[in-house]
Specification:
Elements (H helix, E strand, L loop, with lengths): L42 H18 L6 E6 L1 H13 L5 E5 L2 H13 L5 E5 L16 E5 L1 E2 L4 E2 L14 E4 L16 E5 L10 E6 L1 H9 L13 E2 L2 E2 L14 H16 L2 H21 L4 E3 L11 E6 L2 H4 L3 H17 L16 E4 L6 H25 L1
Parallel strand pairs: 2-3, 2-4, 4-7, 7-8
Antiparallel strand pairs: 1-9, 5-6, 8-9, 10-11, 12-13, 13-14
Helix pairs in contact: 1-5, 6-9, 8-9
């Protein structure tokens, strides 16, 4: 006997962790004012790029003395700019507990070939012991682990009188979690995450301490053009008023401006965080009444409210091999996708088998609730097929 399908579908069935769902009410017509066919160096282009920076500062509540720049290659490009331009001046502590954090560690050790590196590591669903961070070192970490659903609970573990810089990949945290700017020297994120913008552009936020490092330290390795933030030993201020290093897509800029405008209209950062929290609560409520599912992060204090990762704990599934568990999760997601009831919410390829459901502010809680009904249906269907095949 097959399970009954839910009576309705999510209004917006997009639950990918990047690119993420567009903001509610978005249509292509919202981009009609884009400066298409115009130079980004022309007045209209520079004004829009500067507005994107100014609105970012306003919505994210970035301190006035922090610089904000639009840079190439999404969050990855922004992080790499920081690593290649700033590291090497002092020892480094890396903190990693999922795929992207591990990637930054690999770059630091294998590409930059830095020797004085202390790695604090934890597995998926956990967080390293942050009390072991050396405040004399530069610190590289992700605020929110996109592939594990684990975030740092706060920045209390970062010393106010630290000697090193903190370099924070905040791409799945910005606009959804409060960032403690006083504890952060470099913050990076991308447009396609929490505000559902278009991809390929990154944001780089620098504290005065980071600027001082840039102007006092020259790394021993060559820097590609798209990584260079100084001229003649001084910060290239143009980057931080919208004079981008390379040509941006003005269509993507317009889309980001639209997303920022929407963010302001719903109440700014506080409202965005509340929306993400409400979406995550919908999953917590579902988990509370569903015996076969659980969060990958057991501790609620470190559980993400954006890239929410969950695992199947049904004994019949956990008894399977890891590959078979991954296959089960993929089939479950595929069953929901076939019904156009939810897209792209399977686990990340390097992560434990399960689900990864984006709950950022552009998602509606009602849609999350409806998605869980479809997941229940798909679980029953997929498990029945597994039993039949056996």
């Amino acid at each position: 006997m097959t399970a009954a399908k839910p009576a309705s579908r999510p209004n917006v069935p997009h639950f990918s962790s990047g690119p993420c769902a567009k903001r509610p009410g978005w249509t292509p017509e919202k981009l009609n004012d884009a400066a298409l066919g115009r130079s980004h160096r022309a007045k209209i282009g520079k004004n829009k790029l500067k507005l994107a920076i100014d609105l970012t500062r306003e919505v994210l509540e970035v301190p006035a003395d922090y610089r904000i720049g639009i840079v190439p290659a999404s969050d990855t490009g922004a992080v790499e700019m920081a690593l290649w331009s700033l590291l090497g001046a002092r020892p480094v502590t890396t903190i990693a507990w999922e795929s992207f954090g591990e990637g930054w560690v690999s770059d630091i050790v294998k590409e930059l070939k830095l020797k004085d590196v202390t790695k604090l590591h934890a597995g998926y669903g956990e967080l390293p012991d942050l009390s072991k961070v050396d405040p004399k070192s530069d610190i590289v970490f992700t605020w929110n682990g996109t592939t594990s659903g684990v975030r740092v609970p706060n920045a209390d573990w970062i010393k106010a009188d630290r000697e090193g810089l903190t370099i924070c990949d905040a791409t799945s945290a910005a606009f959804a979690q409060p960032l403690d700017w006083a504890k952060l020297d470099v913050v990076t994120f991308s447009w396609q995450k929490a505000l559902g913008g278009e991809a390929a552009h990154g944001m780089l936020v620098l504290s005065p301490r980071a600027v001082a490092r840039l102007e006092s330290y020259t790394p021993p390795w060559p820097l590609p053009k798209i990584f260079r933030m100084t001229k003649g030993g001084k910060l290239n201020e143009g980057i931080f008023v919208g004079e981008t290093i390379n040509t941006p897509s003005m269509l993507c800029v317009e889309d980001y401006l639209d997303a920022l405008g929407w963010a302001k209209s719903v109440g700014g950062l506080k409202a965005l965080i509340a929306r993400a929290d409400a979406n995550t609560k919908a999953l917590a409520d579902w988990k509370a009444k569903t015996p076969w599912i659980d969060f990958l992060a057991a501790d609620p204090a470190i559980r993400s409210n954006t890239s929410v990762c969950m695992k199947v704990i049904d004994p019949a599934i956990t008894a399977l091999s890891p590959d078979a568990q991954a296959d089960f999760a993929k089939k479950l997601v595929a069953a929901v996708e076939k019904e156009n009831a939810g897209f792209d919410f399977a686990h990340y390829r390097d992560a434990p088998a399960g689900l990864r459901i984006w709950c950022g502010a552009t998602v509606e809680a009602k849609d999350v609730e409806i998605l869980t009904q479809w997941i229940d249906w798909a679980f029953a269907e997929t498990k029945a097929s597994l039993a039949k095949a056996a």
